[in-house]
Fold this protein.
Amino acid sequence: MTARRRLSAATVTLAHGGGGTAMRDLVEDVFLAAFDDAGAVPAAAEDQARLPLADLVARGDRLAFTTDSFVVDPLFFPGGDIGRLAVCGTVNDLAVGGAVPVALSCAVVIEEGLPVETLRRVAASLAATAREAGVRVVTGDTKVVARGACDKLFITTSGVGVIRAGLNPGIDRARPGDRVLVSGHSGDHGAAILAARGELAVSVPVDSDCAPLTGVITALLEAAPGTRLIRDATRGGVAAVLNELAEASRAGVRVVEESIPVRPEVRGLCDLLGLDPLYLGNEGVIVAVLPPDQAEAGLAAVRAHPLGRAAALVGTVTDDPRMRVVMETPFGGTRLVDRPVGDPLPRIC
């Protein structure tokens, strides 16, 4: 096997996207060097990944496929970076459908002038997170654009997974009487991004909750196999998921404000800025709806997992024909939790 050439450039240039020697050196020295020990396929020179069908069929009876783009600003933030975010976001979109993630693709759009060392850090983080999540990065693409044509680095990842037989959670499956579970603190990722941008004269000691959730979802489904639906609370936060499930299931949701896990630091930041932690995004929290006879078992299983220690049952699905999400406040009243109109904090993922 031919030895890889060490990339000598300090910054990415347009030549690194031109398909020649410079591009080969960038791909081999930065990406393949990182992904080799993350289980990348050896046939890296091919234009496609080749996945044995027998291996997929042995894991389940349906294929799950998802894709997402990541444009987070800044690239590095407390608790994560764009590389970790890209893997977690894609893996979690598969896992909430009951799928076991198998493989990812990774395409990067790089702005001319990006330091190569920055790209190395992102590639190393992406590979390490893939190992943590138990998936392989099997194919990818690299593009370089002129200064100003994108903001430093954009990543698009797609993923495939296999859904185990008998599992079929869906956003339209909630039924009156079902219990609503939230697996962790609301708004941690959004708060961490907001603090990392340095636009505030306050310090918020909160890390992003960015993490692959396959393990905690597997534990939930084993303890509560009748789980109706699972969603990760990303853009729009917990509030967005509650409204989506109410509309899709043609039901209402009633939640208790004091039961929803929120860190005091995040609540304080939101109070200061006039934000609601329910609308701040997460990257390591799920919202699940469980049949009432399996709710306590599901909660116990999630709390037993390191990523679910703050989990709580926060409410109940109702038969409200207006499909409203209603919150009981600590003062004995109620308020509506509307669907987010816009994004209070853009570019968090």
Remarks:
- The chain has two domains: 14-163, 179-336.
- The CA atoms of residues 66 and 102 lie 12 Å apart.
- The longest helix spans residues 116-133.
- The two ends are 38 Å apart (CA to CA).
